[in-house]
User: What shape does this take?
Amino acid sequence: MSFDAIILGGSYAGLSAGLQLARARRKVLIIDKGLRRNRFAETSHGFLTQDGNTPSAIAAEGRAQLMEYPTVQWLQDEATSAEPLKDGFKIALRQGADVTGRRLVLATGVTDVLPELDGLAERWGKSVFHCPYCHGYELEEGAIGVLATSAISMHHALMLPDWGPTTFFLNGAFEPDADQLLQLARRNVTVERGTIDRLEGERANVVMKDGRVLPMSGLFTATRTEVAAPFAEQLGCAFDDGPLGRSIRTDAMKATTVHGVFACGDAARSAGSVALAVGDGAMAGAATHRSLMFD
Ligand SMILES: Cc1cc2nc3c(=O)[nH]c(=O)nc-3n(C[C@H](O)[C@H](O)[C@H](O)COP(=O)(O)OP(=O)(O)OC[C@H]3O[C@@H](n4cnc5c(N)ncnc54)[C@H](O)[C@@H]3O)c2cc1C
Assistant: This one.
Protein backbone atom coordinates (compact mmCIF):
# COMPACT_ATOMS: atom_id res chain seq x y z
CA MET A 1 0.00 0.00 0.00
CA SER A 2 1.37 3.43 -0.89
CA PHE A 3 0.10 6.85 0.19
CA ASP A 4 0.81 10.54 -0.38
CA ALA A 5 1.33 10.89 3.36
CA ILE A 6 1.50 8.60 6.35
CA ILE A 7 0.62 10.09 9.71
CA LEU A 8 2.06 8.26 12.71
CA GLY A 9 -0.23 8.93 15.68
CA GLY A 10 -3.98 9.45 15.28
CA SER A 11 -4.78 11.69 18.21
CA TYR A 12 -5.42 15.45 18.23
CA ALA A 13 -2.30 16.51 16.28
CA GLY A 14 -2.39 13.64 13.78
CA LEU A 15 -6.15 13.96 13.14
CA SER A 16 -5.79 17.68 12.54
CA ALA A 17 -2.91 17.14 10.09
CA GLY A 18 -4.96 14.46 8.35
CA LEU A 19 -7.95 16.79 7.94
CA GLN A 20 -5.96 19.34 5.90
CA LEU A 21 -4.56 16.60 3.65
CA ALA A 22 -7.97 14.93 3.27
CA ARG A 23 -9.51 18.24 2.25
CA ALA A 24 -6.82 18.52 -0.44
CA ARG A 25 -8.02 15.10 -1.67
CA ARG A 26 -4.66 13.50 -0.87
CA LYS A 27 -4.32 9.80 -0.08
CA VAL A 28 -3.56 9.62 3.64
CA LEU A 29 -2.95 6.75 6.03
CA ILE A 30 -3.19 7.29 9.77
CA ILE A 31 -1.59 4.67 12.00
CA ASP A 32 -2.53 4.74 15.66
CA LYS A 33 -2.14 2.44 18.63
CA GLY A 34 -4.68 4.32 20.76
CA LEU A 35 -2.62 5.45 23.77
CA ARG A 36 -3.24 9.20 24.03
CA ARG A 37 -1.29 11.07 26.68
CA ASN A 38 -4.39 12.32 28.51
CA ARG A 39 -6.13 8.92 28.70
CA PHE A 40 -5.72 9.01 32.52
CA ALA A 41 -7.95 12.08 32.87
CA GLU A 42 -11.73 11.91 33.08
CA THR A 43 -12.28 15.29 31.41
CA SER A 44 -10.32 17.61 29.14
CA HIS A 45 -10.35 21.37 29.55
CA GLY A 46 -9.29 24.48 27.70
CA PHE A 47 -10.01 23.45 24.12
CA LEU A 48 -12.64 25.71 22.56
CA THR A 49 -16.05 24.02 21.94
CA GLN A 50 -14.96 20.87 23.82
CA ASP A 51 -14.31 22.19 27.34
CA GLY A 52 -15.21 19.50 29.89
CA ASN A 53 -15.70 16.74 27.32
CA THR A 54 -13.87 13.43 27.79
CA PRO A 55 -10.48 13.05 26.03
CA SER A 56 -11.74 9.98 24.16
CA ALA A 57 -14.97 11.68 22.99
CA ILE A 58 -13.00 14.61 21.52
CA ALA A 59 -10.72 12.23 19.64
CA ALA A 60 -13.64 10.02 18.53
CA GLU A 61 -15.54 12.99 17.09
CA GLY A 62 -12.41 14.18 15.27
CA ARG A 63 -11.82 10.73 13.87
CA ALA A 64 -15.44 10.30 12.75
CA GLN A 65 -15.36 13.61 10.87
CA LEU A 66 -12.02 12.80 9.25
CA MET A 67 -13.10 9.33 8.15
CA GLU A 68 -15.95 10.87 6.14
CA TYR A 69 -13.30 11.79 3.54
CA PRO A 70 -12.87 8.96 0.99
CA THR A 71 -9.08 9.34 0.58
CA VAL A 72 -8.32 8.63 4.25
CA GLN A 73 -7.51 5.19 5.66
CA TRP A 74 -7.06 4.26 9.30
CA LEU A 75 -4.90 1.47 10.69
CA GLN A 76 -5.23 0.48 14.32
CA ASP A 77 -1.70 -0.83 14.76
CA GLU A 78 1.69 0.07 16.21
CA ALA A 79 4.31 1.38 13.81
CA THR A 80 7.66 -0.15 14.74
CA SER A 81 10.18 1.48 12.40
CA ALA A 82 10.56 4.18 9.75
CA GLU A 83 13.05 3.90 6.91
CA PRO A 84 13.84 6.39 4.12
CA LEU A 85 13.28 5.29 0.50
CA LYS A 86 14.32 7.06 -2.74
CA ASP A 87 11.04 8.98 -2.90
CA GLY A 88 9.43 8.58 0.50
CA PHE A 89 9.41 6.36 3.55
CA LYS A 90 8.65 2.77 4.51
CA ILE A 91 6.86 2.07 7.79
CA ALA A 92 6.94 -1.34 9.42
CA LEU A 93 3.98 -2.38 11.55
CA ARG A 94 3.62 -4.71 14.52
CA GLN A 95 0.75 -6.64 12.93
CA GLY A 96 0.22 -5.61 9.30
CA ALA A 97 2.46 -5.55 6.21
CA ASP A 98 4.84 -2.63 5.51
CA VAL A 99 3.31 0.56 4.09
CA THR A 100 4.95 3.39 2.13
CA GLY A 101 4.25 7.09 1.81
CA ARG A 102 5.86 10.04 0.02
CA ARG A 103 5.70 12.22 3.15
CA LEU A 104 5.66 11.43 6.85
CA VAL A 105 3.99 13.28 9.71
CA LEU A 106 5.18 12.37 13.20
CA ALA A 107 2.36 12.96 15.70
CA THR A 108 3.18 10.29 18.26
CA GLY A 109 3.07 12.50 21.36
CA VAL A 110 5.14 12.04 24.49
CA THR A 111 5.23 9.69 27.47
CA ASP A 112 5.25 11.12 31.00
CA VAL A 113 7.83 9.69 33.39
CA LEU A 114 6.23 10.25 36.79
CA PRO A 115 8.13 11.01 40.01
CA GLU A 116 8.39 7.94 42.19
CA LEU A 117 6.07 8.27 45.16
CA ASP A 118 3.69 5.69 46.62
CA GLY A 119 0.12 6.51 45.62
CA LEU A 120 1.04 8.97 42.87
CA ALA A 121 0.68 6.88 39.71
CA GLU A 122 -2.87 5.76 40.48
CA ARG A 123 -3.93 9.40 41.07
CA TRP A 124 -2.34 10.68 37.82
CA GLY A 125 -4.96 12.62 35.84
CA LYS A 126 -7.49 12.30 38.70
CA SER A 127 -6.04 14.37 41.56
CA VAL A 128 -2.37 14.62 40.48
CA PHE A 129 -1.66 16.75 37.41
CA HIS A 130 1.04 18.69 35.56
CA CYS A 131 -1.06 21.43 33.91
CA PRO A 132 -2.84 24.06 36.04
CA TYR A 133 -4.78 25.44 33.06
CA CYS A 134 -6.15 21.95 32.33
CA HIS A 135 -7.22 20.88 35.82
CA GLY A 136 -6.62 23.70 38.32
CA TYR A 137 -10.08 25.27 38.02
CA GLU A 138 -11.93 22.08 38.98
CA LEU A 139 -10.14 22.01 42.37
CA GLU A 140 -12.53 24.82 43.34
CA GLU A 141 -9.92 26.86 45.21
CA GLY A 142 -9.20 24.00 47.62
CA ALA A 143 -5.73 23.27 49.09
CA ILE A 144 -3.14 22.61 46.39
CA GLY A 145 0.19 20.85 46.77
CA VAL A 146 3.18 21.22 44.47
CA LEU A 147 5.60 18.30 44.56
CA ALA A 148 9.12 19.52 43.75
CA THR A 149 11.23 17.47 41.36
CA SER A 150 13.96 20.09 40.82
CA ALA A 151 14.32 23.88 40.62
CA ILE A 152 11.91 23.77 37.66
CA SER A 153 9.09 23.24 40.20
CA MET A 154 9.42 26.89 41.29
CA HIS A 155 7.36 27.68 38.21
CA HIS A 156 4.44 25.54 39.43
CA ALA A 157 4.76 26.83 43.00
CA LEU A 158 4.58 30.46 41.91
CA MET A 159 1.66 29.89 39.50
CA LEU A 160 -0.65 27.75 41.57
CA PRO A 161 -1.75 30.29 44.20
CA ASP A 162 -4.05 31.64 41.46
CA TRP A 163 -5.97 28.35 41.75
CA GLY A 164 -5.91 27.81 45.55
CA PRO A 165 -3.81 28.10 48.75
CA THR A 166 -0.54 26.40 47.81
CA THR A 167 1.93 24.26 49.76
CA PHE A 168 5.30 23.62 48.10
CA PHE A 169 6.60 20.17 49.10
CA LEU A 170 10.36 20.31 48.58
CA ASN A 171 10.71 16.61 49.54
CA GLY A 172 14.50 16.83 49.38
CA ALA A 173 14.45 17.52 45.62
CA PHE A 174 15.60 21.13 45.75
CA GLU A 175 16.28 24.02 48.19
CA PRO A 176 15.16 27.52 47.15
CA ASP A 177 17.75 30.29 47.57
CA ALA A 178 16.99 33.54 49.43
CA ASP A 179 15.60 35.25 46.35
CA GLN A 180 13.34 32.29 45.52
CA LEU A 181 12.09 32.17 49.13
CA LEU A 182 11.16 35.82 48.84
CA GLN A 183 9.26 35.16 45.60
CA LEU A 184 7.38 32.28 47.28
CA ALA A 185 6.53 34.44 50.29
CA ARG A 186 5.19 37.20 48.00
CA ARG A 187 2.79 34.62 46.50
CA ASN A 188 1.81 33.33 49.98
CA VAL A 189 3.18 29.85 49.25
CA THR A 190 3.75 27.63 52.31
CA VAL A 191 7.10 25.82 52.05
CA GLU A 192 7.15 22.27 53.51
CA ARG A 193 10.60 20.74 53.94
CA GLY A 194 9.66 17.35 55.42
CA THR A 195 9.92 14.08 53.50
CA ILE A 196 6.77 12.62 51.99
CA ASP A 197 5.98 8.98 52.66
CA ARG A 198 2.95 8.50 50.35
CA LEU A 199 -0.29 9.87 48.97
CA GLU A 200 -3.57 8.44 50.15
CA GLY A 201 -7.30 9.12 50.33
CA GLU A 202 -9.86 9.95 47.69
CA ARG A 203 -8.01 13.09 46.51
CA ALA A 204 -4.33 13.56 47.42
CA ASN A 205 -3.75 13.50 51.16
CA VAL A 206 0.00 13.92 51.63
CA VAL A 207 1.30 11.61 54.37
CA MET A 208 4.65 12.81 55.73
CA LYS A 209 7.32 10.46 57.08
CA ASP A 210 6.87 12.14 60.50
CA GLY A 211 3.23 10.99 60.51
CA ARG A 212 1.51 14.29 59.67
CA VAL A 213 -1.26 14.11 57.08
CA LEU A 214 -1.76 17.23 54.93
CA PRO A 215 -5.03 16.94 52.95
CA MET A 216 -4.85 18.41 49.44
CA SER A 217 -7.60 18.78 46.85
CA GLY A 218 -4.96 18.22 44.19
CA LEU A 219 -1.22 17.91 43.65
CA PHE A 220 0.82 19.30 40.74
CA THR A 221 4.19 18.02 39.67
CA ALA A 222 6.54 18.29 36.70
CA THR A 223 6.98 15.04 34.81
CA ARG A 224 9.93 14.18 32.61
CA THR A 225 8.70 13.74 29.03
CA GLU A 226 10.04 11.39 26.38
CA VAL A 227 9.06 11.45 22.70
CA ALA A 228 6.80 8.40 22.54
CA ALA A 229 8.26 6.70 19.45
CA PRO A 230 11.72 6.20 17.89
CA PHE A 231 10.99 7.38 14.32
CA ALA A 232 12.53 10.87 14.49
CA GLU A 233 15.71 9.30 15.81
CA GLN A 234 15.69 6.51 13.20
CA LEU A 235 15.35 9.07 10.40
CA GLY A 236 18.07 11.37 11.78
CA CYS A 237 15.85 14.34 12.76
CA ALA A 238 17.39 16.90 15.12
CA PHE A 239 15.99 17.37 18.62
CA ASP A 240 15.85 20.34 20.99
CA ASP A 241 16.53 19.97 24.71
CA GLY A 242 13.84 21.48 26.92
CA PRO A 243 13.47 21.81 30.69
CA LEU A 244 11.24 18.70 30.86
CA GLY A 245 12.72 16.60 28.07
CA ARG A 246 13.65 16.81 24.42
CA SER A 247 11.33 17.46 21.51
CA ILE A 248 11.64 17.04 17.73
CA ARG A 249 13.03 20.23 16.17
CA THR A 250 10.73 21.84 13.58
CA ASP A 251 10.55 25.14 11.74
CA ALA A 252 7.50 27.42 11.82
CA MET A 253 5.80 25.18 9.19
CA LYS A 254 6.41 22.08 11.37
CA ALA A 255 9.02 20.64 8.98
CA THR A 256 11.73 18.64 10.76
CA THR A 257 15.38 18.82 9.74
CA VAL A 258 14.85 15.80 7.44
CA HIS A 259 13.30 16.49 4.04
CA GLY A 260 9.75 15.16 3.74
CA VAL A 261 9.28 14.59 7.47
CA PHE A 262 6.95 16.85 9.49
CA ALA A 263 6.22 16.69 13.22
CA CYS A 264 3.43 18.15 15.33
CA GLY A 265 1.79 18.07 18.74
CA ASP A 266 3.52 17.28 22.02
CA ALA A 267 6.35 15.42 20.28
CA ALA A 268 7.46 18.65 18.61
CA ARG A 269 7.01 21.31 21.29
CA SER A 270 8.23 21.76 24.85
CA ALA A 271 4.79 22.01 26.53
CA GLY A 272 1.59 20.91 24.88
CA SER A 273 -2.18 20.93 25.06
CA VAL A 274 -5.04 19.67 22.93
CA ALA A 275 -5.55 23.12 21.39
CA LEU A 276 -1.86 23.52 20.56
CA ALA A 277 -1.70 19.98 19.13
CA VAL A 278 -4.66 20.73 16.86
CA GLY A 279 -3.07 24.00 15.73
CA ASP A 280 0.31 22.39 15.10
CA GLY A 281 -1.40 19.54 13.26
CA ALA A 282 -3.23 21.94 10.96
CA MET A 283 0.07 23.62 10.10
CA ALA A 284 1.86 20.29 9.57
CA GLY A 285 -0.96 19.04 7.32
CA ALA A 286 -0.91 22.16 5.15
CA ALA A 287 2.90 22.13 5.00
CA THR A 288 2.90 18.45 4.01
CA HIS A 289 0.46 19.24 1.22
CA ARG A 290 2.63 22.14 0.07
CA SER A 291 5.64 19.86 0.04
CA LEU A 292 3.77 17.27 -2.05
CA MET A 293 2.90 19.96 -4.60
CA PHE A 294 6.13 21.93 -4.86
CA ASP A 295 9.18 20.09 -3.44
C1 LIG B 1 -3.09 13.58 32.86
C2 LIG B 1 -3.15 14.54 31.71
C3 LIG B 1 -4.22 15.39 31.57
C4 LIG B 1 -4.25 16.31 30.52
N1 LIG B 1 -5.31 17.15 30.44
C5 LIG B 1 -5.37 18.05 29.43
C6 LIG B 1 -6.48 18.96 29.34
O1 LIG B 1 -7.39 18.95 30.17
N2 LIG B 1 -6.47 19.86 28.32
C7 LIG B 1 -5.48 19.89 27.39
O2 LIG B 1 -5.54 20.73 26.48
N3 LIG B 1 -4.41 19.04 27.45
C8 LIG B 1 -4.35 18.12 28.45
N4 LIG B 1 -3.28 17.27 28.52
C9 LIG B 1 -2.24 17.33 27.49
C10 LIG B 1 -2.72 16.56 26.24
O3 LIG B 1 -2.95 15.22 26.59
C11 LIG B 1 -1.65 16.61 25.13
O4 LIG B 1 -1.19 17.92 24.93
C12 LIG B 1 -2.26 16.07 23.82
O5 LIG B 1 -2.72 14.75 24.02
C13 LIG B 1 -1.21 16.10 22.71
O6 LIG B 1 -1.78 15.57 21.54
P1 LIG B 1 -0.87 14.75 20.51
O7 LIG B 1 -1.78 14.40 19.39
O8 LIG B 1 0.38 15.49 20.23
O9 LIG B 1 -0.41 13.45 21.31
P2 LIG B 1 -1.27 12.29 21.99
O10 LIG B 1 -2.64 12.76 22.28
O11 LIG B 1 -0.47 11.77 23.12
O12 LIG B 1 -1.38 11.19 20.85
C14 LIG B 1 -0.30 10.50 20.32
C15 LIG B 1 -0.86 9.31 19.58
O13 LIG B 1 0.19 8.64 18.88
C16 LIG B 1 0.04 7.24 19.07
N5 LIG B 1 1.32 6.55 18.89
C17 LIG B 1 2.47 6.74 19.59
N6 LIG B 1 3.42 5.90 19.15
C18 LIG B 1 2.86 5.17 18.14
C19 LIG B 1 3.32 4.13 17.32
N7 LIG B 1 4.58 3.66 17.40
N8 LIG B 1 2.47 3.59 16.41
C20 LIG B 1 1.19 4.05 16.31
N9 LIG B 1 0.69 5.04 17.08
C21 LIG B 1 1.52 5.59 17.99
C22 LIG B 1 -0.49 7.12 20.49
O14 LIG B 1 -1.09 5.87 20.71
C23 LIG B 1 -1.48 8.29 20.54
O15 LIG B 1 -2.78 7.91 20.10
C24 LIG B 1 -3.21 16.35 29.58
C25 LIG B 1 -2.12 15.47 29.70
C26 LIG B 1 -2.08 14.59 30.76
C27 LIG B 1 -0.90 13.68 30.91
